[in-house]
Amino acid sequence: MTGQLTIDSLIDNPDIHVVMCCGSGGVGKTTTAAAMAVRAAERGRKTVVLTIDPARRLAQALGLRELGNTPREVEVDGFEPAGKLSAMMLDMRRTFDDMVLAHAGEKRAQEVLANPFYKTISTSFSGTQEYMAMEKLGQLASEGTWDLIIVDTPPSRSALDFLDAPQRMSTALDGRMIRLLSAPARGGGWGVRKVVGAGIMLFAKAVSTIVGGQLLADASAFVQAFDSMFGGFKQRAHKTYELLRSSGTSFVVVASPEPDALREASYFVERLESESMPLAGLVVNRTHPVLAALPAAKATAAADGLEARGDAPLATAVLRLHADRVAVHERERRLLARFTKAHPNVPAVSVPAMPSDVHDLTGLRTIGERLAGTP
Amino acid sequence: MSGASTPVVGWTEQVARARLHVVTGKGGTGKTTVAAALALALATNGRRVLLVEVEGRQGIAQLFDTHPLPYEERRIAAAPGGGEVRALHVDAEAALLEYFTMFYNLGFAGRTLRRMGAIEFATTLAPGLRDVLLTGKVKETVGRTDSSGRHRYDAVVLDAPPTGRIVKFLDVTKAMAELAKVGPIKGQSDGVVRLLHSGDTAVHLVTLLEEMPVRETIDAVEELDAADLRPGAVILNRVRPPRLPARSVTPAAGGRVDASRVRGGLEAAGLDLSAADLDGLVEETVEHAVRQLAEQRAREQLAGIDLPAVELPELTLGVDTTALYELAEVMVEQGVR
Hints:
The complex is a heterodimer.
Chain A: H1 7-11, E1 18-22, H2 29-42, E2 46-51, H3 56-61, E3 72-73, E4 84-89, H4 92-103, H5 106-114, H6 116-124, H7 128-143, E5 148-152, H8 161-173, H9 176-182, H10 192-196, H11 198-211, H12 213-245, E6 249-255, H13 259-274, E7 279-287, H14 296-309, H15 313-342, E8 348-352, H16 361-372
Parallel strand pairs in A: 1-5, 1-6, 2-4, 2-5, 6-7, 7-8
Antiparallel strand pairs in A: 3-4
Helix pairs in contact in A: 2-16, 4-5, 4-7, 7-8, 7-12, 8-12, 9-12, 13-15, 14-15
Chain B: H1 13-17, E1 20-25, H2 31-43, E2 48-53, H3 59-63, E3 74-79, E4 83-89, H4 92-104, H5 110-115, H6 118-125, H7 127-143, E5 155-159, H8 163-170, H9 172-177, H10 184-196, E6 201-207, H11 211-226, E7 231-239, H12 246-253, H13 259-268, H14 275-303, E8 309-313, H15 321-333
Parallel strand pairs in B: 1-5, 1-6, 2-4, 2-5, 6-7, 7-8
Antiparallel strand pairs in B: 3-4
């Protein structure tokens, strides 16, 4: 077994200013981020948690009744942290609008905001949410109001999307393709044409037939208006990327004890390594530890014996559910062992499953204690 | 059906008539596993089934423990009674290139375009285009016939995007609204729309007996109905046996477990546990009861949407190819055909 991940030494560390919670969808990232934030605030740090798409009841636990794109202090009865806790939910459209407004003159900005193609890009492009989460993180970090920013990354299929999306988006928006595609309409003459030859011309024609001339015209207008701002955007994305690589940032990878989630966690850990991004460790969320030292086979045999005699239905049930639990635990243990064998230097902590969904402060505190390994 | 406490297990005539089985579910509910098991179940007794994946995850290859699938139909498993399952990994880029080759004679430029990221760009420009291409390919496989006029596949099972995106994915009409109004892609998509909204298509929803996945399932059924798409069956995945006698569940969930009765029973079975171990068993029992109660509530909620159901057991050893056959067998026993 590898080292134990100690969350407290991470969230107490005055040199750590950003904690990124990553992992594939459905593993409990948002809850983990919220629980860490509550714990950090109660341990005295001025904390803000940036959530992406929390379940309604979890949002309510943090006192977030509606989508707000700026941090709001969490004020819940019985919550008097030694530090401070603010929380916000990312509104990607508003973050994008703000970004445009900040980078363009009034007139340009209005042109961009009114462009139909901008509406598509700012709401439904697959990387927008990731890009905007990074943008928001950059803003929060530069404000310097908080000791600690905890980020819940967007619920993408793969944890890696989070690192790749901004790059993908930059490529899509940097205008080269749009220029290429709209070139035939303007009589061509672009240098790139020589490189790709006739294929691109046919392609452009085909694309234009498929997506329609209006869309291409909108896209082209969008890029022209966008171009001047784009340098600024790219630079910003780059700066945020650097922030992720700095020593003040630490990544926590969250996985459930399932093959898919642990496989994603593996990819992510390897990726962080190759990007020299600092990894704190792995949180294995919702495990089922065995609470009584009774082997499954013995429990099952005893249950069979009782059942045959028609005796003690409650004890029989208890023995059977214990045997089930041992089997689940064994499976989880094997899966985790596979991960740690591949990544012996990654500290890990197991967080036992709560019997029901967490949607209040008490639940978040309990998870915080489990994260810290101090039940 | 209101008042029922659990969905009715079985495969209705209407669902059995479908030739395209779309499988969706919240992330983490085991949608790919269920799609694969369903393909095996449908292939039982000599039928030919195609299992399609569209999200680029290579989940099917991992399940069947084979190399990543190419954009090509490959035999992936034999089914009991002489049937076979083929698998296809549909990639939007490849589908777009295939499309260009077919209608614009652009095959030669494919590699260059791909290298330049042109394809990704085109599908970025019109996000609906990606879905139109993917569903278009699926439709082609459903409609394909051999020389004797018989359908190449008796059924096609689609491992579809998760519940949160499923209606957007299947609502090709809406996606097309932002694309060109003429040309071959329009003609093709009209056929897709006809297929997806017909009795030939059923959209199955995979869920766990937990609050969030059940909530999403119910929402998705409403959205499907509103978009005139046809929900098929609800597939309850990873169902664990409820161990506690009904009358003990509620008190136990509230923390009331009669420890002395448990001890008495254990002693009768010849087990003499320490106080700490007994406490541990009681705690495990309370957690089990809380979950059993939540599962009961989940069943009641699902009964309200009035769809046929299939129940698959939790496999504590995990899912491998053998387990897929087991799940397929359970499906067949419950009426899947």
